[in-house]
Specification:
The structure holds 3 protein chains of 3 kinds. Chain A is 71% helix and 0% strand. Chain A is mostly helical. Chain A has one domain: Orthogonal Bundle (MetI-like fold), CATH 1.10.3720. Chain B folds into 2 domains: 103 residues, no CATH class; 191 residues, MetI-like fold. Chain B is globular, with a radius of gyration of 23 Å. By secondary structure, chain B is mostly helical. About 2% of the residues of chain B have low confidence. In chain B, helix 5 packs across helix 8. In chain B, strand 1 and strand 2 form a beta hairpin. The N and C termini of chain B lie close together (9 Å). The chains are: A mainly alpha, B mainly alpha, C alpha/beta. At the A-C interface, helix 1, helix 2 and helix 9 of A face helix 14, strand 18, helix 16, helix 18 and helix 19 of C.
């Protein structure tokens, strides 16, 4: 073949000459997804708790706050109360099932808001640079210098314990970290030539940030979201344990451990079951984060 | 190099000042609250009103912040010690000294009388944990690195993920059930009081173990994400967060438990003091970490 | 074959597989070769042909996924498969040394140079301290480092890329290896530095008798250093023979095609035509059952080529993996006669003019904010240029000469510190792209160097082009934009159904095609192409060049083409500006710049480029030293320190005048025009050479 014939022109004429790029490249990802055991277990754990939360009325034998006088004599696990009863004679199994709801509602909602705030701060800092960057970075540095639990405790103590205030606290605690991550990603991505090409099309800064930069930051952001879900669920548990969680009588896993701790010598199961609930849920998110990271690095 | 250190110092100072402003705003944003909390729930509205005026609490937030900063740095006298207020607050150090955090309304004594002992206790706990964590983390890191991609590396990864998924209070409860309740080998609480059944050293075993498990797993996860350079700081902050929870579980007389108790009680002066000290430690470690990193990296050193 | 003992390395029937998701990928199959003491074997081919895999297999660096599935590798008659991990470690960096493309990754950034070199001697020779430091200093001198004692205390980041590569070479030779593996050792370097490194390697080999395996895609370099060449394609050796015979009389259609893709230094666009090769290198999942090149071969025949090919002996040690090599050789290379020479365009409307443009960077020392202007570095110094509609201006020079800065000033990504820039009749001197008028923005577009960065990997080709059409073009309405996108795809010869494919899934060449389409979406007045082909393989490079030329012609766009590759610039440009340290040292028509009278720097640059064509006879004034840093107010000829023809007492003291050698042909030099005219041409031509194109005359003014 002579003349200015070109590789794709002939590829169109002879399909065998070239792999079809679109389909060929997408398939292995799904295959890997199925092959990654870590990712599979993580997804299964999360799916389990999500199902429990949604189907709580069907799964839980009793309401979360019903006090069973019959359990007074024997609070130990029995056929009536699989995980036993708590100090207030409420069914622990039912409370754990119902308790999946607030966690799985508050943590993702709060983290979603934290991501919106963090992305906005980090992206403008990284993209515009200069004094905007200086200001945002300073704020981030200051907020990150607080040990997380200290910030949570002070915030909830001064705002008062409620679901909304937990969301506010999660935003204040998590968004600086997200902001720092996004700032770094933005600084790296804005040097790419496709951003320059967008500038040479007279695109607005807003368009460049949202359409050109943000989609390419999604990989690290998704991993970060999963890791943060783990930390946030732990933090909500800790707050409950410290007595700063959802106000009673809401079923709150951390609060359940707190109520049970003084009776650990006699009824250790009262603390152990809700602890296991938190551990498995957190582990689900951590495993998904690990699995996704492996997929990214294994390419 | 000196310039680099000076710049870091300035930035650390700025962070401290900004953090103190945040603390102040969070705790003392509503002035009515301040007077009420200083006097306690049994004071009459009239008394609260008098204190409100005496302390000039209707001034703007930033003015009050300036005064507060003045008292802490020993530049201003603490007005609460003024006998005419009738609060009977008395500090043997006088009313003007560096580190004057005021009076604890919960304990009815100057904050300085209680906070340093508690800080020392916390430092002992954290220090012991640190002594275990650092060699352990280094060993794990080297093991994982030498066996990169092999089963041992993967086992370490999985284990660190599992342990990083266990909140300190959960591992504390589990370990307590096992070693204190079931086996009876170790004490379930650590009040650090000598003369009891359990010697002091045994009271450290479980708290240190709890801290080690979580922080080591957390650090191992960071190492994996190849963020070794920025490790020093999250390391210490995670440890500090862990200390708060551990102290609460084991009834350990440290700064963390004090912070929680005062936060629940609404003891303004103690909350501020405990939080500021926590931030100071975090900022100081960051500074030390940055300078240490610079000394290890010729690319920065020779620039 | 020579004596058995003289064979350093022999590879027999090697096959290497990489484990992939579900099945293996055959990276190398049926490869056999031998290298004797003091000999150099060149492995050439495009990326993905398995060249580097062979190097990795020899060093057993195949990682967890790769494995040698067949055949064996003998080093000094010893089967490497029997070596323990301990033996291997002793061998690597000892009796087998390797040098790769990125010198910086071979050096430990936290260790001083001297300490790193000493470590080699400690581990492999076991010398005492004084002997070690003597040997290190001797070796640094041997690799051409002027002040060895000053070098040992430095850290890798404190020295230039060329010096780093020298240190790496010193490190390799310190261990006195029997075999040196060179994997694209000069690809990241400038031509003049490359020429020096190649000379150094040749000298070291001659002095020490080291056997070499030289891996490169650059046929000119291979010709210069290798005795024998193996051409690799899709994991197989498709042609083997002496360097001269393979390059002068290629037999395999792939070798023929590769040579036809290489732009020539000695000829202009009017005199020949580059022929690009269609298709891509296939990935094998099993040993091939037909000729691997069949899909791309113009000579392919059903019945002959669709069965496994064996290496056929052509006599004289030459072998070829093609059953039709006799017919292929007879057919010869039938490049069509050149496209009519583009005459220099009459000065129509000037779309761009630069007048005395300069750009000075303030050097910030890291962590030093208070002392602002410690030193100033000039990237550009009084550049004056004019560009007419539809014209192509090539800009060449070594890295750091300021050519990219010039591009960034023209496109409004940077603002000059002095001078004036006028674009489409408007002053844009102080206007970053964000502050230019919509017309000025739309009419200047760019094609970038790095294919992996040029397109947003998250977007589909359709989205990318449609957005460009919407923002830059005149088409309104969805349907009109779609039609326009299809026109663009036709323009860059891509199938229309590629619009649904995400950019991340395209090959490098395809990405660059889309980038060209995007740049031409609004039929701009000016396209600035900054090294658009330097990251691409030879055959793809040629296709992109053709594409740029045809797209430019179609929309009457002016083109600024920036490259370090002189042959490419000569092929594409009407006029060429040669830059050195921020100055234009020569500007003129392509043929004027490449023949005397020319600036001594152009002469040196031309001499440094290795030519594929063996018929070219060249004198080579060697250019030594490296591009320095242009510090403010040099007040002299900046090239004087490296110039072979510098006039003592003049060049280093006074700024050179600009000589007008012909209308529009300007040279910035102290040498009188008569002397410049008398310079011998770099390219002489021996009579009766292969591939001579009739009608070619050296243009002497």
């Amino acid at each position: 073949m002579t003349g200015p014939a070109t590789d794709t022109a002939s590829a169109a004429a002879r399909p065998s000459a070239q792999p079809q790029p679109g389909q060929a490249a997408r398939r292995p990802r799904f295959r890997k997804l199925r092959r990654s055991k870590v990712l599979g277990i993580g997804i299964a754990l999360i799916a389990f708790w999500v199902a429990v939360a949604i189907l709580a009325p069907l799964i839980a034998p009793y309401g979360p706050n019903i006090q069973h006088t019959t359990a007074l004599a024997n609070p130990f696990p029995s056929s009536d109360h699989w995980f036993g009863a708590d100090p207030l004679r409420r069914d622990i199994f039912s409370r754990i099932v119902w308790g999946a709801r607030p966690v799985l509602l508050v943590a993702p909602a709060a983290l979603f808001c934290a991501n919106v705030v963090g992305i906005a701060i980090g992206m403008s800092a990284g993209f515009y640079g200069g004094w905007v960057d200086e200001l945002c970075s300073r704020v981030i540095d200051v907020l990150l210098s607080f040990p997380k639990i200290v910030l949570y405790v002070v915030l909830i103590a001064s705002l008062g314990p409620s679901a909304l205030n937990i969301v506010v606290a999660v935003i204040l605690v998590s968004s600086p970290g997200i902001g720092r991550l996004v700032r770094g990603l933005t600084i790296e991505l804005k040097t790419r030539d496709f951003v320059t090409a967008a500038r040479m099309r007279a695109e607005s800064g807003f368009y460049i940030m949202l359409v050109e930069i943000l989609p390419n930051a999604r990989g690290p952001l998704i991993v970060d979201f999963c890791m943060r879900m783990g930390y946030t669920i732990i933090a909500i548990g800790v707050l409950g344990f410290l007595g700063l969680g959802l106000p009673p009588p809401n079923p709150d896993w951390g609060g359940m451990v707190r109520e049970a701790t003084p009776m650990l010598t006699v009824y250790p199961y009262m603390a152990i079951f809700p602890s296991l609930a938190i551990i498995t849920l957190v582990m689900g998110f951590n495993l998904v984060a690990d699995g996704l990271q492996d997929l990214d690095h294994g390419r | 190099m000196t310039r680099f250190i000076l710049r870091r110092l300035a930035s650390a100072l700025f962070t401290m000042v900004a953090a103190s402003l945040i603390v102040f705003v969070l705790v003392e944003a509503s002035p009515g609250n301040v007077a009420r909390k200083t006097l306690g729930p049994f004071a009459s509205d009239e008394q609260v009103q008098i204190l409100y005026e005496r302390l000039q609490l209707n001034d703007s937030l930033i003015v009050r912040y300036g005064r507060w900063l003045g008292i802490i740095t020993g530049l201003r006298a603490d007005p609460l010690q003024n006998p005419s207020l009738g609060l009977k607050f008395h500090d043997r150090r006088g009313d003007r000294y560096v580190g004057n955090f005021g009076f604890s309304t919960m304990m009815k004594i100057p904050v300085a009388d209680v906070i340093w002992q508690r800080l020392a206790n916390s430092a002992a706990l954290a220090g012991l944990a640190f002594l275990v964590i650092v060699p352990l983390a280094i060993a794990i890191g080297i093991l994982a690195g030498l066996n990169a991609g092999r089963p041992l590396d993967r086992a370490i990864t999985t284990l660190s993920t599992v342990f990083a998924s266990i909140p300190e209070f959960a591992s504390a409860v589990l370990l307590m059930s096992l070693f204190a309740v079931w086996l009876g080998w170790l004490p379930g609480t650590s009040p650090l009081q000598a003369g009891g059944f359990w010697p002091i050293y045994s009271q450290f075993v479980l708290p240190v173990t709890v801290l080690t498990l979580y922080v080591t797993a957390y650090v191992a996860r960071f190492v994996r994400a190849s963020m070794i350079e920025v490790m020093a700081t999250p390391y210490v902050r995670t440890l500090m967060s862990g200390v708060v929870v551990t102290e609460v579980v084991f009834a350990y007389p440290g700064l963390g438990r004090l912070l929680l108790e005062t936060a629940l009680f609404g003891d303004i002066a103690l909350i501020e003091a405990a939080t500021l000290i926590a931030v100071l430690i975090a900022v100081a470690t960051q500074l030390a970490g940055d300078i240490g990193y610079m000394l290890l990296n010729p690319r920065i050193r020779f620039a | 074959m020579a004596d058995e003992r003289d064979t350093i390395l022999s590879v027999e029937d090697l096959e290497v597989r990489y484990a992939s998701d579900d099945r293996d990928i055959v990276a190398v199959t049926d490869v056999s070769f031998a290298i004797e003491r003091g000999q150099c074997l060149g492995l050439v081919g495009e990326s993905g042909c398995g060249k580097s895999t062979i190097a990795m297999a020899i060093l057993r660096y195949l990682g967890h996924q790769g494995r040698i599935s067949k055949g064996r590798i003998l080093f000094q008659s010893r089967d490497m498969a029997g070596l323990t991990a301990e033996d291997l470690r002793a061998l690597r960096g000892g009796r087998i040394a390797a040098i790769y493309q990125g010198a910086s990754t071979a050096l430990n950034p936290t260790m001083a140079i001297g300490a790193q070199l000493a470590e080699v001697l400690r581990t492999h020779a076991g010398l005492d301290r004084n002997r070690i430091s003597d040997r290190v200093l001797d070796m640094l001198a041997a690799v051409g480092i002027s002040e060895p004692s000053g070098m040992i205390g430095r850290f890798p980041h404190q020295i230039s890329g060329g010096q780093q590569q020298r240190v790496v070479i010193a490190m390799a030779f310190l261990a006195e290896p029997e075999l040196l593996i060179l994997d694209e050792p000069t690809t990241a370097l400038d031509v003049t530095v490359e020429a020096e490194i190649m000379n150094l390697l040749g000298e070291m080999r001659a002095a020490r008798g080291t056997a070499m395996l030289f891996i490169s895609h650059n046929l000119g370099l291979v010709r210069q250093i290798c005795h024998t060449i193996s051409v690799m394609y899709a994991g197989q050796i498709v042609e083997h023979g002496s360097a001269q015979s393979v390059l002068d009389r290629p037999r395999h259609p792939y070798t023929i095609g590769m040579i036809a893709c290489v732009p020539r230094l000695d000829l202009g666009r009017a005199d020949y035509r580059l022929v690009s090769m269609p298709g891509q290198v296939p990935r094998l999942v099993e040993p091939p059952r037909c000729c691997t090149f069949m899909d791309r071969c113009a000579h392919a025949r059903e019945g002959t080529c669709d069965r496994p090919m064996a290496l056929e002996d052509m006599g004289g040690g030459a072998r070829v993996r093609c059953s039709r090599w006799r017919e292929v050789a007879g057919a010869g290379l039938s490049a069509p006669p050149a496209a009519s020479a583009t005459p220099i365009l009459p000065r129509r409307d000037r779309i761009l003019s630069l007048e005395g443009v300069s750009k000075t960077y303030e050097m910030h020392r890291l962590f030093n904010l208070s002392r602002k202007s410690a030193a100033k570095v000039r990237a550009n110094d009084l550049i004056s240029l004019e560009l007419a509609a539809g014209e192509t201006l090539g800009i060449v020079g070594e890295s750091g000469c300021g050519k990219s800065t010039l591009a960034r000033i023209v496109t409004g990504l940077e603002v000059p510190t002095g001078g004036w820039v006028r674009l489409l009749g408007g002053d844009v001197t102080r206007r970053m792209v964000e502050r230019r008028s919509l017309r000025q923005v739309r009419n200047v577009q760019m094609v970038f160097q790095n294919p992996d960065s040029t397109l947003n990997p998250s977007h589909s080709v359709g989205f990318i082009l449609e957005r460009a059409v919407k923002k830059l073009g005149a088409a309104t309405g969805r349907a009109a934009r779609r039609a326009e996108v299809e026109r663009l795809l036709d323009l860059v010869r891509m199938p229309r159904d590629i619009t649904r494919v995400t950019a991340a899934h395209l090959s490098g060449g395809q990405k660059q095609r889309v980038a060209v389409a995007r740049a031409f979406a609004g039929r701009p007045s000016l396209v600035v192409a900054d090294e658009p082909t330097s990251a691409l393989d030879t055959s793809v490079k040629t296709a992109i060049l053709e594409l740029l030329l045809s797209a430019q012609k179609e929309s009457g766009t002016a083109l600024i083409f920036i490259s370090h590759d002189l042959a490419v610039v000569r092929y594409i440009a009407d006029r060429i500006a040669v830059m050195y340290l921020g100055q234009i040292v020569e500007i003129g028509r392509a043929d004027e710049v490449f023949t005397p009278p020319y600036h001594p720097y152009c002469e040196a640059l031309l001499a440094a480029v290795p030519a594929v064509d063996g018929a070219l006879d060249r004198r080579r004034p060697r250019l030594t030293g490296e591009v320095g840093r242009a510090v403010a107010n040099a007040g002299s000829c900046l090239f004087a320190p490296r110039c072979a023809r510098a006039i003592a007492g003049t060049c280093e003291r006074f700024e050179p005048p600009v000589i007008e050698a012909a209308a529009g042909h300007l040279i910035r030099c102290h040498l009188p025009l008569a002397d410049l005219c008398a310079l011998p041409p770099v390219f002489g031509r021996r009579g009766g050479a292969a591939q001579t194109v009739s009608g070619w005359q050296p243009t002497n003014l």
